[in-house]
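Re: your question about Pectate lyase superfamily protein

S., sorry for the slow reply, the queue was backed up all week. Below is exactly what I fed in.
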Amino acid sequence: MLRKNVKVKKTLKAVVMALIIASSGKSLAADVNAAGFGAIPNDGKDDTQAVKKALESVKKGDSLVFDKGVYDFISHLVFDKDKCHIGVFDKENIKIKGATENGKPATVLLRHIDIDPEKRVDLPQIMAVKGCSNITIENIVSDNFPRATSAGAVVEKDPEGYWIRVRVFDDLPMVDKTGCDSSNAWLPTKPPVFKKVRSLTYGNYKGTWRIHDRENRIMELTHNDGKKLDFLDLVDVGEYMSWHYGAMGNNQMIVQNNTNLVMQNIYVPNVLHAFVNLSFNDNVLIKDVVFKSDNSSMAVGSRDAFHMSTNRGKMLVDNVYIEGVRLDPIVLRTRYGHVHEVKNKRNLNCQFLVPSSIVPQKGDSIVFWDKEGLPCEIKVESSQYISKPVRGLDVTLQADIPDWVTASTPVKSSIYMPDEVIIRNCTFKNNAGSDIIAFHDNITFKNNLHFRPTDAAIVLGSNRSSAGVCGTNIQILNSNFIDCGWGGKGGLKGAIISANRNKYKLPRCNDVLIKGNTFRGIEIGAAMNLKDLNNCLIENNRFINVVEKVRIDPDTTADINIDNMETTSGVFKKH
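Result:
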């Protein structure tokens, strides 16, 4: 059973109500309509400056209101280092509110982009939100013009391997001399689904599409360096390819250093790079958001949907639908630090790459891992940010530092993680990567559907030092996993995997509950593929047409308890 020190979670209702009440404030003073400042929908004119003027007039308690229709953003603004079309900074108790039609968002914020390979990396963000408190963004469609993705059916492959030709679908763009980034193969079913092969291209691929036969909508891809294409054996004539015009660069939105943030009723049909980077926020509610193509492109974006890093407080993701995103729709992570010097039995210097404004307070915690990968948590008495001899923290603890802690011992701190994250009632379909990367503590997944991600649906553990830590107190409950994990992540294949792939080898995940889930059609790998994990309870799960239920690495795990597993097909193996 789970150890007694596992935190007891507050009710989901309490989390929702706290976020909604905090974000709404006492009253809304006025509606400031963007049209009154010259931002007229559907006129094709640049609305950047008009929206800037409207935002300048928004005071505490106001709502910036957009009418139904398309708002065009062509020029951009620069705020400090932020290059964006809409800049929302240091506002208190406001809403950015679009119109609705039959309950769905009807205000389109259309970012005009240049898909030239030399320019696409430095595109302005459609919106930057920083330093605000009690802010709501709702009823918005976030889109690009032209769309930053395309797709088509393979019609011919060079027998020698140097080119591939695709008939682009009728409703998608044919743009000469564009890239083939984050490309995937699809089976021509109705609707199309991923072919069970690796992604055809990763990131910014050195290939260029050229129009081969405009009348018949045929484009040809060749390698920029005259090399053979390295994926032609993975996709056949008659199957489909999707690709993007960019994979790296600025996100579509950046949301940082806010308190009580709500994003709700948002539709995203197309993304270039990632949709939003949420970091260093306190209390976040994301609700009723849809990522789904509205044409034949199948794929929506070339990077993450929500990249959430080093947030705090409570986070709730509820009723979100994500389909066709490349490289991990939801990423939850914080950062490792490491001990630089143990100064005395209760004082040490830790190196953390974090803002100087965020330091542990009395009662927060510092966590070390012992040689068995078990966390040792000690409360902080005091701390301060230091820049020398290293950038990080000088910390005094309330108890003695274990004698096995030395310079370079990895650490994590509660101040750089949410108190609670809940992801519930969400649907993930045909995403090229893992649906959720869970690289910190205190996360509950509940009532979600995971359908055919190329990699594991849920990944626990850690990656490189800046990309997450091995978490404690994680629950995966009452969810459905269908045909997941055949592509693998870090060498592990399965629907749920745990692994520490970091340079720090001691940490393990701890206190994990996997209960009441259904795994269906897991034909490659195991439904659960577990390494670097202590104290895990697996119970009351159902397995249908699963070749292997649970795979456990005995060298890096301890106290894995399995109970009451229903199956129609499947085996249990301990390797």
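Residues 433-574 form one domain. The chain has two helices and 50 strands.

Happy to talk it through on Thursday.
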